[in-house]
Amino acid sequence: MQLLDGKVVSQAVKNELKEKTRLLTQAGKKAPHLAAILIGNDGASETYVASKIKNCEEIGFKSSLFRFDSNVEEAIVIAQIEALNNDDDVDGILVQLPLPKHISEEKIINIINPAKDVDGFHPSSVGKMVQGLPSFLPATPFGIMLMLQHYKIDTAGKHAVVIGRSNIVGRPMSILLSANTNPGNCTVTLCHSRTQNLKELCLQADIIVAALGKVSFLTADMVKQGAIVIDVGITRVADSSKKSGFAIKGDVDFEKLAPKTSFITPVPGGVGLMTIAGLLKNTYNACVQNNRY
Ligand code: NAD
Question: Could you give the CA distance from residue 156 to residue 154 in angstroms, rounded to a whole number?
Fold first, then answer.
């Protein structure tokens, strides 16, 4: 069993972006600029946004944070996004999800200028991704692809089972793994809450991506010997032994399952870090494209 180490791979991505940014600014060009919008004060969302901003600073990107109360009017958020769309200094716009119920996620995502859609959720980005055209890829599946690439994992012809069909993880993951690319070229089975023979399907899988948000859902008896397992799940579980009062748990029963695998991602320290790496890469690319560098 080999650990797919998100710390190592995300650091490699960040080092590359830091050097490229240094070269840009040395040549008198502007550094990439990510603008983040955070609504309300959900603990997990606060942590994610703070981490994204800290990572921007680490590699020389500019970042701006726009915070709103949870009861903010939708029109105010839309006006903020439009201002960022029109601000030439801003390369990427990120709206941290989930949003309060009175704000339409669909409307908010649709209003973002596709040229600044560094989360890759705009229908224009998704359409391009599906057709294999250059586009911003959703950060989590993009990060997983970068990880597979880093460890030179041969995915061609493998059977990949993706558990979960959300627009931000499962569905785009299934599209990227099935694309005629490297990594990619898998035969993909996309499973969800209505899938009837999940265990059987998982036992046939060479690669399993667990993205359903249920702690330790994927157990050792569900994977074949030598499988590659990617754990996307992030759930906060109360733990009084931790200073924060909670522990972060994945969708995989890591301790029992890991010895059966050839490669596996840990939680924390796996996909979460790669999601940030994917976002930073998208922001750098947006800067280069939007400014015609
Ligand atoms: P979601 O709630 O939008 O979707 C969950 C999916 O799991 C659904 O498609 C549902 O059909 C499927 N599902 C639920 N129960 C199932 C079952 N018993 N069998 C098979 N499928 C089942 O979730 P999401 O936004 O895709 O997030 C999934 C998990 O990934 C969460 O824990 C989330 O916190 C985490 N996440 C992590 C990262 C990261 O960077 N590591 C990024 C995004 C989401």
Answer: 6
Where along the chain do its domains lie?
A: 28-114, 139-271
Residue 244 alpha carbon to ligand 1 centre in Å: 23
pLDDT for the residue 40: 97
Nearest CA residue ID for atom 14, ligand 1: 193
Query: How many residues in total does the chain contain?
Result: 293
- Whether residue 237 contacts residue 231, with contact meaning beta carbons closer than 8 Å, is answered with no
User: CATH number for the 139-271 domain, one of 3.40.50.720, 3.90.950.20, 2.40.400.10, 1.20.1250.20?
Assistant: 3.40.50.720
pLDDT tens-digit readout, 212-231: 999 999 999 999 999 999 99
